[in-house]
Write a structure and sequence with these properties.
With about 700 residues, the protein is an alpha+beta fold. The protein has 14 helices and 29 strands. The strands form 6 sheets. Strands 15, 16, 17, 18, 19, 20, 21, 22, 23, 24, 25, 26 and 27 form a 13-stranded antiparallel β-sheet that branches. A hairpin with a 2-residue loop joins strand 28 and strand 29. Helix 3 runs antiparallel to helix 4, helix 5 runs antiparallel to helix 7 and helix 12 packs antiparallel against helix 13. About 15% of the residues have low confidence. Pfam families: Oxysterol_BP, PH. Keywords: Lipid transport, Lipid-binding, Transport. It comes from Polypedilum vanderplanki. InterPro entries: OSBP_sf (IPR037239), Oxysterol-bd (IPR000648), Oxysterol-bd_CS (IPR018494), PH-like_dom_sf (IPR011993), PH_domain (IPR001849).
């Protein structure tokens, strides 16, 4: 459907946003723009954006703007409001989708002929038929997802709880079927790319004349803007496309190809080279392992002998988990798989039920990642040592802002394992300055029953699978301080980014003072998913102490597209009943943060905290061999070993077994009408709290 109207387009830093008249032409997959409607009527085009193979992006921090990435550029647009942006984004997505499927058969046929030299017509026919069937499966999959969603909505609308329970099995089985279908389609695409890697030249989209003669569609060879001083901005500083190569073709068109990669560990979370077209997969080159070849979709496989072993010859899973080394790669070598996954989603879609390939995973569970909030346990414990409530609030903010940098083990965005329901993770920290020979005993009723009272202990549990909710708790017995939190992670696809909304709260409790500090969490974003993805945090968080009245407002600032730095924060700390803050904080949560006193007590800014100059305390985790069956490292040990060995097939198989076991157990509970009971946390309204917190145990001890 054609669409035209006014949008603002980012020109450059000097000219900023300029109003243009845009015309969307779906039949040729082209978005043209003019300086005015009158210029459009006269045919004086200012520039255009080709939409075939383009990617639409939005940022939920700004409801008006969106981007189109294609032809090595990212074009930035601004609508009047969120409703208008939604209208343009939907029309653009539909145009891109139609162009993708319209030319699928033609492209695959030409590519197959080129790669085979035209020597085998039968193989060509088989591949064309294969692609057609995969395309049909994609279409039916989306229809099934839509129908399942509608059924789920109708069931949820039933007023009678008994009636809803009757249909729960239907929803569970439908979701399981969707998971299997998604997984199967990804594996089929992998199998095709392995059996027939495509290295031919793309001849461009074609159309059919009335006389059935195929001729090129007359559209510009590349997206462009007028040369009259309108230099379009694109994210060159992010190196989003610096590793892409352009290859000229016989008709002077260009295509994007990934360069050869030599590193060992191609696993990150992003997509491919500028295209959401599932019919144009990136060539996945077979590589050889150190000792033997492998057929696994272009991954280099290390022999298991390269993994650390115990003295008895078995795998040393503890050493595998503790080894955080990785060689980070862009997604270019995995483009076809990610492209296929992106074909299943639309802008703003919830990603909870989208199956992601194994190679993008970080080698640890999400529950273990939450332990990184205590990478600086000394800063946490020092909260209770301050006598003044103002100083305690400052120390809470200092600990909180220092908690995020340690969670990123790599410069490249990766996704931790989704915990299974009932999974737990336990660890502790030894803090030399707080060790006590005279006042140290084993706290058997604590979260880690073999730890002592002068250690900081931690436990996390996956308390819900749908929706995915994690709860975690930490305490230091001797210092009478604890922290309890619950987080519901809700992921959304934003086109060029993936957004993760962290819904929940955390509470720092100072037991002897009967004082609590209630805080919220920032959202996370995986940016630049077209090349080398990176993580940033965004959103406003609050820290409040109801008893003393002190509170803080902290903004995690996302990087603006026209400049600026990553990981910026700015915050204000307020005294009770005051509208003006007494302390301002600014800097980078991944580096130096400074503080400025607004009450006149100090004239110059001072270092608030520099996370790169303070030590990270290593958490202590019990050996995998000693862990219970539902502890994170034991649950995911085979997946972790497979990823470390770069044996993606083995890791994927192990991951499927873990998840299938969870499905089977859920079915048994459902059939037997058995309610799931969490072991360490309990539900209290909208919150999840630790069942036996330190404050409760101390109260009992005093009686």
């Amino acid at each position: 459907m054609a669409l035209e109207g006014t949008l603002s387009k980012w020109v450059n830093v000097m000219k900023g946003w300029q109003t243009r008249w845009f015309v969307l032409e779906p039949e040729i997959s082209l978005l043209s723009y003019y300086t005015s409607r009158e210029k459009m009527m006269k045919g004086v085009r200012r520039g255009c954006v080709r939409l075939r193979g383009a990617v639409i992006g939005i940022d939920d921090q700004d409801v008006n703007t969106f981007t189109i990435t294609v032809d090595h550029k990212t074009f930035h647009f601004q609508a009047r409001d969120g409703e208008e942006r939604e209208r343009w984004v939907r029309h653009l997505e539909d145009t891109i989708a139609r162009s993708t499927y319209k030319y699928r058969g033609c492209y695959d046929a030409s590519q197959t002929l080129l790669s085979m030299g035209g020597s085998s017509s039968s193989k060509n026919n088989y591949l064309m038929m294969f692609d057609k069937k995969v395309s049909e499966a994609d279409t039916y999959l989306q229809m099934m997802i839509d129908q399942t969603t509608k059924i789920e909505q109708r069931i949820n609308a039933l007023e009678n709880e008994g009636d809803r329970a009757k249909y729960d099995t239907l929803i569970i089985q439908a979701n399981e079927m969707l998971d299997h279908i998604k997984h199967s389609i990804v594996l089929l695409q992998i199998a095709k790319n392995t059996a027939n890697p495509i290295n031919g030249v793309y001849m461009g989209p074609m159309k059919t004349d009335p006389d059935d003669t195929a001729t090129p569609v007359q559209v510009p060879e590349t997206s462009y803007s007028s040369s009259e001083g309108e230099d379009d901005f694109y994210d060159a500083n992010d190196d989003a496309f610096s590793s892409q190569l352009t290859t000229p073709t016989s008709n002077n068109r260009t295509i994007t190809e990934p360069p050869s990669r030599l590193s060992d560990d191609p696993f990150v979370s992003a997509d491919d080279n500028l295209s959401t077209n599932t019919s144009t997969p990136t060539s996945l080159k077979k590589q050889e392992s150190i000792e033997s070849p492998i057929k696994d979709v272009g991954y280099r496989k290390r022999n298991s002998k390269s993994l650390p072993l115990r003295h008895d010859g078995s795998l040393d899973y503890d050493a595998i988990y503790e080894d955080e080394s990785d060689s980070d790669l862009s997604m270019e070598s995995h483009g076809s798989v990610i492209t296929h996954l992106l074909s299943q989603v639309k802008i703003g879609m919830d990603l909870t039920k989208v199956v992601l390939p194994t190679f993008i995973l970080e080698r640890r569970s999400l529950l273990e990642m939450y332990a990184d909030y205590f990478a600086h346990p000394d800063l946490f414990i020092k909260i209770v040592e301050h006598k003044d409530p103002r100083d305690r609030m400052i120390q809470v903010v200092k600990w909180y802002l220092s908690a995020y940098h340690a969670g990123r083990k790599s410069a490249v965005a990766k996704k931790p394992y989704n915990p299974i329901v009932g999974e737990i993770f336990r660890c502790h920290w030894n803090i030399p300055e707080y060790e006590s020979k005279d006042n140290s005993q084993v706290v058997t009723e604590g979260p880690v029953p073999w730890c002592k009272s002068d250690q900081l202990t931690f436990i996390a549990e996956q308390v819900s699978h749908h929706p995915p909710i994690s709860a975690f708790y930490a305490e230091h017995y001797n210092k009478r301080i604890s922290f309890s939190a619950h987080v519901w992670t809700k992921s959304k696809f934003l086109g060029l980014s993936i957004g993760v909304h962290n819904i929940g709260t955390g509470t720092v409790t100072l037991c002897d003072l009967n004082e609590e500090y209630i805080l919220t969490f920032p959202n996370g974003y995986g940016r630049s998913i077209l090349s080398v993805p990176w993580i940033e945090l965004g959103g406003n968080v609050t820290i409040k102490c109801p008893k003393t009245g002190y509170h803080a407002e902290i903004d995690f600032l996302t990087k603006p597209f026209y400049g600026g730095k990553r990981n910026k924060i700015q915050g204000e700390i307020y005294a009770p009943n005051e509208k003006k803050s007494f302390l301002s904080i600014y800097g980078e949560w991944s580096g130096l943060m400074e503080a400025k006193w607004n009450d006149g007590s100090k004239s110059k800014p001072e270092v608030f905290v520099d996370v790169n100059r303070i030590p990270i305390y290593k958490k202590q985790v019990r050996s995998v061999l000693e862990q219970d069956e539902n502890e994170s490292r034991r649950v995911w040990k085979e997946v972790t070993a497979g990823l470390k060995a770069n044996d993606i097939e083995a890791a994927t198989t192990a991951k499927f077994k873990v998840e299938q076991k969870q499905r089977d157990e859920a079915k048994v509970r459902k059939d037997g009408n058995i309610a799931w009971i969490n072991k360490n946390f309990k539900n209290a309204g909208d919150e999840w709290i630790y069942s036996n917190p330190l404050s409760h145990r101390l109260t009992l001890e005093q009686r």
